[in-house]
Every structure is written in structure tokens, then in C-alpha cells.
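Q: Two folds, back to back.
A: First:
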Amino acid sequence: MSPEQAGVRVVRFQSRTDCELRKEPLEDCKRHWQRVVSLEDHESNLGEFDVFFCRRCKLGFTEPYPTEETVGHLYETRESREFELMPHSPIDLIKDFLSRREIARIAPRDGIRSVLDYATGNGRYAVSAARVFKDACVDAVDYQATPPPLLQSRFERVSYCAVTEFAERRQRYDLIVLRHVLEHTHHPVQLVARLADRLASNGVLYIEVPNVDSGCAKVFGKYWPG
């Protein structure tokens, strides 16, 4: 009996054929690759992954490469550290303060009436956006059918929906927050394009990703959280 027949959700892998950014055969990029680190993914228990950096495209990526059909199995539960919360602890209070400061920095407060926190994780930034932009309605979106615990207790002006439901909506947003999402996405360039289409006139699309060429990445190597 195969794992699938036994009801086990199996992540499978495939070979990369094209450059996600340039839409050219991957062979054209390979001579620009350098291996940044090899490390074991302790959260997924899928074994060891290589992290490469393409000096030509300025992008980092992992090998092996999960298939589009099975990559979602990695995000069906909320067991990774991205979902960890310690309510009212000093650490969480600091994280709340820093998230509100970051939200306030990336967009002018005047004129923000609608905010999308895409792949909201534990919901911290969705709540911070509602607190910073007092007149804004905030949509939090993620891959699970139910909201994270932080958003399950009623919070004014914050609503949650799953990615599948969000795809049916046509609302535009003054601010879209995309924090540490692209590195988990099978087609990151396509996702950015789709979300850009959901921006209101003069809207802001804020993107944050790990910088595999940063000083911290070089110093800490495989121990760097990014």
C-alpha cells in the first residue's frame, strides 16, 4: 500500500526546468549558481535541502523542489514557529510593538481604508494593521479553512478567509502586506502579479523576503533563521 492509499499526505519533488523570473531555460542560469548552505528542515522532517543563490537573477531558492500539487501539504497545519504565540509575554509584547511600527512605516496613515494581509500566519500583522489604521477594514488570508487563534476571538475590522475563497473576491486594497510568503510559494512572480492587480489606485504592495546574500545569512550560515 502506498502512503497516499494509506491516507498519508506526501510531499513530492520535481526538477526545475525554467527560471521563474526570466522565463528562460534554467540551463542559462546554472553557471551563475552558488550553493549558500545545505541544511535539514526540522519542521517538515523532509530531510536535507540545498539553498542556492543565482548571481544573475539575485534570487535564492531551495533544492529539491516540491511539486505544485503537493507543496500545500506543508501548510495544512499550524505547527511551525511562524504560528507561535505567547500572549502577554515580554517577547510577544515586543513583537506586537515592532509589527505596529513596521506597518506604520510602510504606508501613509491618511487614505488607508482597506488592507490585505496575505498568508497572515498567526494574524499578528493583520491585528497590527487594524490598530495602526483606525478607519481601515483588514482582510487576513491564509491556506487553512479556519482563522488562527489570534483572529478567532472577534477583533473589530479584521475578517479572515481561506485562499480559495479569496480567489473569488474582487476587492481592491490600499495596502497589501506580503511578509515572508514568496519563499513558500510555488510561483512567486505570478503571485506578485495577481496581487498587484488587486491594488487600489496609488496603493502600496509591501514585500518582505529573506535576503540570502545578507551579512546575517553569511555569518550564521545554516543557523540563520531565514
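A: Second:
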Amino acid sequence: MAIDKVTSAGLATSTNQPNFRNIIINGDMSIAQRATSTASITSNGYHTVDRFQTVASSLGTWTQSQSTDVPTGQGFATSLKMDCTTADASPGASDELQIRQKIEGQNLQYLKKGTSSAESTTVSFWIKATKTGTNIVELFDNDNSRQISQAYTISSADTWEKKTLTFAGDTTGAFGNDNNSSLFLVFWLGCGSNFNSGTLSTSWESGSNANKAVGQVNHADSTSNDWYVTGVQLEAGTSASDFEFLPFDVNQQRCQRYFVQYGRDLNGAGDINVGIGQWYSASEIVYNIYSPVRMRVKPTITSPTVSGGYRFHKAGSYTDVNTGGVMTNCDNQALSVYKSGLSGGTGGQATFVAFIVAGAKVQFSAEL
């Protein structure tokens, strides 16, 4: 095991909060509601591990997974793995690859950003990669378009190493006290000259792409390359505390503020009944699903097309269709779904909905 510590001069030191001191949600990579593995990734999205977004633009093709490869004896059971399946050894100027988490401003007010008492923050994490060399972690203030970056070194190939990076507090630009995205924690995996041709932003400055990831190695340059991360913690102060493990149910509920999925894949054999409602007319129904927690905002709905995957019941029979409906009037917990184009129903008659084929699901997203 190798341990690095990189520090930029802190303006203030804070006593860590005793509970929920980790600003990052799901830093142990234990929650993966969407999937445990997704192949052929070439663009932006949330693919596997909750709260960690992939930002990808023309820099290789990747399989992302929730891996059981973890540092020994540290209490972790899972990590986020990136496996390069199509290499790109010569990135174009605008190419980039990141893993990042966005954080609500109302969860950051105690950092006192934009004041003379602004807190330093410390990021700690465990990293393992095939490719050694210089890598970059960036903090980006989305409210004020400000940034700061720190470099760390992966010293040994395919070896878990713990890294600790301390970032100065920023006396310019307060975070909004709301539920919008204020701060991004960014792990760079590769980039083109648009992002590495300047001078690394080792102190807070106005947003400048050229200064974000200077020195970053290219993890996309070979199909032999793997990249893993776990134990991600961001906290106030100038030192790292031990990783804050939360109970699985608490961690899951924190993730469900941003994403909830109901579907056939999540259960065993048999029809999965997910919502009750009524026939609005002979061809339309409205059914309700309740989120286990209040979501960040009114979510958007995705219902993948699956042949005959969704079953809408009526008196003595049912109708199988390929999609599950669209969002109608709802708030951030009572989620109403509307489906038209059916037949044989009776207005006012009660109904329930079942998902009967693997891949049939409804996904409610309130991601930042």
C-alpha cells in the first residue's frame, strides 16, 4: 500500500461533523440500482454505481461495473471499475473522460464558501489502475464557475493505493442554498489538449478548461487498462478521517433521493406487481407508484421498450404492451404514470400493473 498526501494552503480548519461528515453519497460503491455492469459506454450517463456519473466524449469505449475487487482489510465490499474495451491513444482536443459526483448546495453551507471563514476540504479515496503516473482530482464550483485541481500519483500498477488531497477554502463565490448542483467532485481518467494545455489550477480560480487536468495520464490508451475507485470521502478540514461507513438502508435511501427503479430485473420469477390505479377510459389508465423517499425534485420517467413486458389488468383479463407509460401529474414522492393506446377497459374500473419480462421497468430520475 502506498499513501500520498497533497496539500494546498488551507484558509481554515474545521472540526469534522461526528455524523454524515462525508459529503459524498455512496462513496463505498455499495448501491447500484441501475445495473451492476454496463458495456459499450462512449457518452455521458449514470450507468451502474449510484451517484457517480460518467462524462465521456470520444475517449475510448468502456465497460463500467460494480466490482468486488477492493483493498484488503479496509472494510469495503465493492468498487467502481472502468475497463477499456476500445482504446484511444491519441485524444482529440475536446476528448475527455471523467467520473464525477454532483452535490447539492444546501448540503454545503457549513463550508462557508465565499466568506473569509471558508473551510478547507479534504478528499480521500482508494485507487487501483493498470496505468501508473499523474492523475487529477478537481473540485468545480458550478454556481460561480470556479475550479481547483490537485495531482496525485498512481505509483504501482494494479495495486490498491490510498490517496489524500487537501483543497484550500474559497473566499470567493458562495454556494446556492438550494437543491441544485453546486459542487462537482471530478476524477479525471483522460483528456485532450482543451483540458491540459495550461497551468494546473492548484488554487481557486475562474473556470478555465485548459487548467483543469494538466498532467493527466490517458487511461484510454490500451485495452489492457482497468481503473478502480472506492472509499471516496470529501469532508471539511485539512485532514482525512477514517471512511464513514453507513448502514446499507441509510445509504440506499440517500441514493433514492436521486433515482428510484421498479422492475422485473430486481425480483425473482413471476409477475411483479408495481402499481395500482384505474382505467380512465376504455383505452387509458392511470396508476400510482410511491417513491420510498421524497426525491430531490419531480422526477422524469424512463420506461424501456420490452416486447410484451408490461401487463395492464382488467376484469378477468389483461393487456400486454411494450412500454409502461409516461409521467403525469405528480410531486416528488407520489408518482402518477399514464398509459394510453390500450383496449377493452372500463372507465373507473380498478387495475394494477405487472412487469412480466426481464428488462421491463420504470425508472424515476431526479439526478442533478
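Q: And?
A: The first strand starts at residue 3 and ends at 7.
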